Amino acid sequence: MSFTKTTEQTSKYNHLEKMSVADVLTNINNEDKTVPFAVEKAIPQIESLVTAITEQMRKGGRLFYIGAGTSGRLGIVDASECPPTFGVPFDQVIGLIAGGDTAIRRAVEFAEDDTEQAWEDLRACKINENDVVIGIAASGTTPYVIGGLEKCNANHITTGCITCNQGSPLAQVAKFPVEIVVGPEFVTGSSRMKAGTAQKLVLNMISTTVMIQLGRVKGNKMVDMQLSNTKLVDRGIKMLIEELNITYEKAQTLLEKHGNVRNAINHYQSLK
């Protein structure tokens, strides 16, 4: 298959080392401003993927992200934030990276070139037909990710992808592709920049929308969030004050007794 890797095309800017700091920052910012518009064009694709994920998770399925390098790390970040934000079990949204956990902090050479390892990583998590696997790769050519989705397809597992090149091999493999075409990077080929930003935006959209569809948000509040620090406890108390029109002390007592905002609201309202 032949396609154009716009993420690898030469930057529109040159002689970066001769630019002033202000010019470098301004030009990076100007490029970054284009990313949300690229994401907007893909909303129909994102909608299809979110709908498929929601359907599978309602059956008890899980959501997996697989990727290498920056893409893998972004998937892990999104997965790791779902339990504290939405109160889901830690193993309901899972991020896997080529090279394993070591690669989260330090690049593991050639790990992304292994076409079999993603499937082995998924099998270790007891992947099944109710689950959904999203491959994340700016280039759309990462062997680790493509190999993983091919195996998932062969085993009747729903697949999606997030990539930043149109018509890539990865998009051809995924059942629900999301293609965010951001164009050349400010520093040629540095896909941690606009492409990474695009992927992060889409991941935010996917996980947040799925959790809303699954009932993990009430009104506009994270009522199932884990109360894992003082800031979040205080936020939970303020949610109760706003929702129930009660005093700070009463809200604090309710939260301490019932463990999270949703349970506290439900208990208080059941007494009326």
How would you explain this protein's 3D organization?
- By secondary structure, the protein is of the alpha/beta class.
- The protein contains twelve helices and five strands.
- Helix 2 (35-41) packs across helix 9, helix 10 (230-244) packs across helix 11 and helix 11 packs across helix 12.
- The longest helix has 20 residues, at 194-213.
- It starts with 20 loop residues before the first helix and ends with a helix.
The poorly predicted ranges are none
- Gyration radius, to the nearest Å? 21 Å
| Sheet with the most strands: spatial strand order | 2-1-3-4-5
Topology, number of strands:
5
Assign a percent range to the helix content.
40-55%
Order of secondary-structure elements: HHHEHEHHEHEHEHHHH
Rounded mean pLDDT score: 96
List the topology elements.
Layout: H1 21-32, H2 35-41, H3 43-58, E1 63-67, H4 69-86, E2 93-97, H5 102-105, H6 117-124, E3 132-136, H7 143-154, E4 158-163, H8 169-173, E5 176-179, H9 194-213, H10 230-244, H11 248-258, H12 261-270
Parallel strand pairs: 1-2, 1-3, 3-4, 4-5
Helix pairs in contact: 2-9, 3-9, 4-9, 6-7, 10-11, 10-12, 11-12
